[in-house]
Amino acid sequence: MSLPAPLRIAIAGSSGRMGRMLIEAVVMSPDCRLAGALDLAGSPALGSDAAAFLGKASGVKITADLREGLADADVLIDFTRPEGTLAHLAVCRELGVKLVIGTTGFDAQQKAQIGAAAADIGIMLAPNMSVGVNVVLRLLEQAARALNEGYDIEIIEAHHRHKVDAPSGTALQMGEVVAAALGRDLKQCAVYGREGVTGERDPSTIGFATVRGGDVVGDHTVLFAGIGERIEISHKASSRNTFAQGALRASRFLAAHGAGLYDMGDVLGFDKKASVS
Ligand SMILES: NC(=O)C1=CN([C@@H]2O[C@H](COP(=O)(O)OP(=O)(O)OC[C@H]3O[C@@H](n4cnc5c(N)ncnc54)[C@H](OP(=O)(O)O)[C@@H]3O)[C@@H](O)[C@H]2O)C=CC1
Ligand SMILES: O=C(O)C1=N[C@H](C(=O)O)C[C@H](O)C1
C-alpha cells in the first residue's frame, strides 16, 4: 500500500524566530515536505538552503520571489508582519495556495481583507496556535460567565524584548472572548495601561498590562479579582515549538477543508462560541 503524498508546505519569514522553528518542524514531520521558503528582499539568507541553520540540506532555497516560493506549495505558513502577510495573501489567493496566519497586530480593515480572501481559499487565522491557549480560551468563557458580577478583570501578558506589537494578539483575543461572554464590547471597555491619577477602577472595564523583556516566549494571565478571592487563569509557553506544532495541525486541517476562514477552535473540534479573534 502506498503512503499518501506529503503535505507541501512553504514558510514565510524563514529567517525569523518562528520561521526557523517552523522549518525545523516541517523538516522533522514525515507527513510534510518543505516546498518553499520566503524572506524579505535584501535578507542575507536569500539563495541559501532553508534548512542550513539546522546543518541540513532541504533542497529548498530561500527566495524573495513570492510566485517562485509558492509554486510548489499546498499551504503557506506565515508568521511575519501584517503588511507582509497581506502581500502573501494576495498571491496565495491568485495561486489557490491555502494560508495559515500566525502574524499578530492586524487592524480591523486588514482582518476584513483576510476574511474576503477566505471566499476563495482556506485560511486559518489564530494569534496563538498552541493547543493550551485555545483550551484556555474555552475556560475563560466559562469563568467569565460564572464570575459576571463583583470581579474585576485584568489581562497581563509578558513577551521577549523583540516583540513589536502590544498587547499581544493572544491577550486581545482573550479580552474579546471574556467581553463577549459578559455581553460587553471590548472596544468600549478595554483599558490599555494606567498612569497618573486614574480615579477608582470602573467595574465594567477590562484592563490590559504588557511586560516586555529578555527571552520570555509568551505568558498570559487573566485575573478575576473579587472581594476575598482572586482567580488567575494562566498559560505559559516555554518553547516556540508549541506554536509550530499547532501551525502544522492547522495546515493538515486546511488540506482537508475547502475555502473559508477557520480558527484553532475548528481544528480542535470546539463549537463556535469562543472563537472571537
Ligand atoms: N500565532 C502564534 O501562535 C504566534 C504568533 N507570533 C507572531 O508571529 C509574528 C512573527 O514573530 P517572530 O517570528 O517572533 O518575529 P521575527 O521578527 O523573528 O520574524 C519575522 C520574519 O518576518 C519577516 N518579515 C518582516 N516584515 C516582513 C514583510 N513586510 N514581508 C515579509 N516578511 C517580513 C522578517 O524578515 P527580516 O528579519 O528580514 O525583517 C522575519 O524573517 C509576530 O506577529 C508574532 O506576534 C509569534 C509566535 C506565535
Ligand atoms: O510575538 C510572539 O512571540 C508571540 N506572539 C503571539 C501574540 O502576539 O499573541 C503569540 C505568542 O504569545 C508569542
TrEMBL record:
<feature type="domain" description="Dihydrodipicolinate reductase C-terminal">
    <location>
        <begin position="132"/>
        <end position="268"/>
    </location>
</feature>
<keyword id="KW-0520">NAD</keyword>
<feature type="active site" description="Proton donor/acceptor">
    <location>
        <position position="159"/>
    </location>
</feature>
<dbReference type="Pfam" id="PF05173">
    <property type="entry name" value="DapB_C"/>
</dbReference>
<feature type="domain" description="Dihydrodipicolinate reductase N-terminal">
    <location>
        <begin position="8"/>
        <end position="129"/>
    </location>
</feature>
<comment type="subunit">
    <text>Homotetramer.</text>
</comment>
<keyword id="KW-0028">Amino-acid biosynthesis</keyword>
<feature type="binding site">
    <location>
        <begin position="169"/>
        <end position="170"/>
    </location>
    <ligand>
        <name>(S)-2,3,4,5-tetrahydrodipicolinate</name>
    </ligand>
</feature>
<comment type="similarity">
    <text>Belongs to the DapB family.</text>
</comment>
<dbReference type="InterPro" id="IPR023940">
    <property type="entry name" value="DHDPR_bac"/>
</dbReference>
<keyword id="KW-0963">Cytoplasm</keyword>
<dbReference type="GO" id="GO:0008839">
    <property type="term" value="F:4-hydroxy-tetrahydrodipicolinate reductase"/>
</dbReference>
<dbReference type="InterPro" id="IPR022664">
    <property type="entry name" value="DapB_N_CS"/>
</dbReference>
<feature type="active site" description="Proton donor">
    <location>
        <position position="163"/>
    </location>
</feature>
<dbReference type="InterPro" id="IPR022663">
    <property type="entry name" value="DapB_C"/>
</dbReference>
<keyword id="KW-0560">Oxidoreductase</keyword>
<feature type="binding site">
    <location>
        <begin position="102"/>
        <end position="104"/>
    </location>
    <ligand>
        <name>NAD(+)</name>
    </ligand>
</feature>
<dbReference type="InterPro" id="IPR000846">
    <property type="entry name" value="DapB_N"/>
</dbReference>
<dbReference type="InterPro" id="IPR036291">
    <property type="entry name" value="NAD(P)-bd_dom_sf"/>
</dbReference>
<comment type="pathway">
    <text>Amino-acid biosynthesis; L-lysine biosynthesis via DAP pathway; (S)-tetrahydrodipicolinate from L-aspartate: step 4/4.</text>
</comment>
<dbReference type="Pfam" id="PF01113">
    <property type="entry name" value="DapB_N"/>
</dbReference>
<feature type="binding site">
    <location>
        <begin position="13"/>
        <end position="18"/>
    </location>
    <ligand>
        <name>NAD(+)</name>
    </ligand>
</feature>
<comment type="function">
    <text>Catalyzes the conversion of 4-hydroxy-tetrahydrodipicolinate (HTPA) to tetrahydrodipicolinate.</text>
</comment>
<keyword id="KW-0457">Lysine biosynthesis</keyword>
<keyword id="KW-0220">Diaminopimelate biosynthesis</keyword>
<protein>
    <recommendedName>
        <fullName>4-hydroxy-tetrahydrodipicolinate reductase</fullName>
        <ecNumber>1.17.1.8</ecNumber>
    </recommendedName>
</protein>
<feature type="binding site">
    <location>
        <position position="160"/>
    </location>
    <ligand>
        <name>(S)-2,3,4,5-tetrahydrodipicolinate</name>
    </ligand>
</feature>
<feature type="binding site">
    <location>
        <begin position="126"/>
        <end position="129"/>
    </location>
    <ligand>
        <name>NAD(+)</name>
    </ligand>
</feature>
<keyword id="KW-0521">NADP</keyword>
